[in-house]
Design brief:
single chain, alpha/beta, nine-stranded mixed beta sheet, 8 helices, 13 strands, globular
């Protein structure tokens, strides 16, 4: 089951209750994401991984439309943020992927959400930081949770790598994917570490957020740069000691904190922290 399958009913035509309206796959996907936004507004949250309390609601603009922050969200003294284009891309045989595009950055990034969560919500919490660097794709987990449209991971590294590649191809990127950054939150961090270990040339830069286990040197020994992040109000020792040990072993690594964030949240400064983390990755990369 995918997000597309979460909505397969058709509303009746006014005046003719027996005649349904046929909806396209894109229309069904958009309706499901809108329903997800309403669910968040009503504080419907998965138990295992709370929804980010300080990130924006799920919004899927029309493809190729620019997503601009609300005027009140950008103080007059703040420099203009990078323009962001958010697209929902249909991937053959898979759930749609969410694509955030900047206008100048050359880099590719992929985001893996946590258990029973939703990737677009998290990606939007640092959309301008990602857009500054290039293109970010938020891939959805492969299995649905009880609450649609939240999803959980059961993929192997090999299967997930293929799904990520298919998402980039569906988004119109036919070039080599080597050298991208992989970002994982919670259980997504476990998968990100696995992918970086199995495909180090492709997932060369790694950001792990709120992982349930300490990152280890032997999995990331070929990574070009790494950043470990934890919420201020989350368990921090795993990410902090992991970064310290990685750096001591010669793998460029640093630790950052998301102020005011519990597990599952990006906090009120997610945009700033992720901007600094992404800048750090490419400024401190090593040659392999």
């Amino acid at each position: 089951m995918s997000l597309r399958a979460a909505f397969d009913g058709s509303p009746p035509v006014p005046g003719d209750p027996d005649k349904p309206i046929a909806l396209s796959r894109t229309a069904r996907t958009t309706i499901v994401v809108v329903l997800a936004s309403l669910a968040w507004a009503c504080e419907t949250k998965p138990v295992s991984e709370p929804t980010p309390a300080h990130s924006p609601p799920v919004q899927v603009p029309e493809n190729h439309a620019e997503a601009a922050p609300a005027a009140s969200a950008v103080p007059s003294a703040t420099p203009p943020r990078e323009s962001v284009r958010i697209e929902t891309v249909e991937v053959e045989g898979d759930a749609p992927a969410f694509v955030l595009r900047g206008t100048h950055g050359p880099h590719r990034m992929v985001f893996l959400h946590g258990y029973c969560s939703h990737g677009l919500r998290y990606a939007q919490s640092f959309q301008h930081a990602a857009a500054k660097q290039g293109v970010l794709i938020a891939v959805q987990a492969d299995k649905p949770c009880d609450e649609a449209p939240f999803r959980r991971w059961t993929n192997t590294a090999e299967t997930l790598n293929g799904r990520i590649e298919a998402a980039f191809r569906a988004a119109g990127d036919d070039a080599s994917l080597d050298g991208m950054a992989i970002i994982g939150y919670s259980s997504g961090a476990v998968l990100a570490e696995m992918l970086a270990h199995k495909y180090p040339a492709r997932y060369a830069h790694v950001i792990l957020i709120g992982g349930p286990q300490k990152p280890v040197e032997w999995r990331l020994r070929k990574s070009r740069s790494t950043v470990m992040i934890a919420g201020e109000n989350d368990r921090r020792d795993l990410m902090e000691t992991g970064a310290r040990d990685l750096d001591a072993s010669g793998i460029p690594s640093t630790f950052m904190i998301l102020p005011g964030a519990k597990h599952g949240e990006m906090g009120p400064e997610g945009e700033r922290v992720m901007g600094e983390a992404l800048d750090w990755l490419w400024k401190n990369e090593r040659s392999i």
